[in-house]
Write a structure and sequence with these properties.
The chain is built from four helices and twelve strands. With 253 residues, the chain is mainly beta. InterPro entries: ADC_dom_sf, DUF2071. It comes from Streptomyces polygonati.
Amino acid sequence: MPVPDPGPIAVDAPSGVADQPLMTQWWRDLAFVHWPVEPARVAGLMPPGVRPDTLDGLTYVGLVAFRMYRVGWFRLPGVPYLGTFPETNVRLYSVDGQGRRGVVFRSLDAARLVPVAVARTVFRLPYMWSRMSVSREGDTVTYTGTRRWPGPRGAHSRISLRIGGPLARPTELEHFVTARWGMHNALLGRSLYVPNAHPRWPLHRAELRTLDEDLVAAAGIDGPLGDPVSVLYSPGVPVRFGLPHRPAGIPTP
């Protein structure tokens, strides 16, 4: 059976997605750092029925740091303490047998133990409990984290970037690594696609001041990646997640 062409990158969320949300949250003060890789290098890290999504023959590894704010269920108000914390993700870019683009999370470091335990137990997401902070001084934002549990203990990241001007017209690559309207994940041996929706990203160019991390290697992506080819900042967006879909062929940035 031929594999569907996912078509052009959709820069806006599909209409009707998550009109009845399973979960709501805000993503704030985001840093997007990306490296290109050959698809074969990460194909084995995808859930069943999911392959690397590509742009001009390459796929990308993303390191995304941000502040999660007020995670809530359904249409209930978000939780101020347990639902608000720094987070840093290692993610890959995916497409399934129905042509749906998404992300695959290889790790999600977060600073609250209870949400980490729930996400690992209920959703089988690779959340890690870490000591983390996000600070801003003028136009410079710094994200730090050191893993506590489950491991590898001590895996760390320090990202510092200077925020530049807004992007009036993001490039195709900048849309490719940010305009993602779902997540692919494996649960009980089967793949799931979890849709999300949010306003179009307000993106800024950014200058990377510091990058010291081993989260990417700890996530199973071995070997040197070189210098990042894309560094972006966004003040953030409100997000809604819809109900999971089966089968995939697959919630956070």
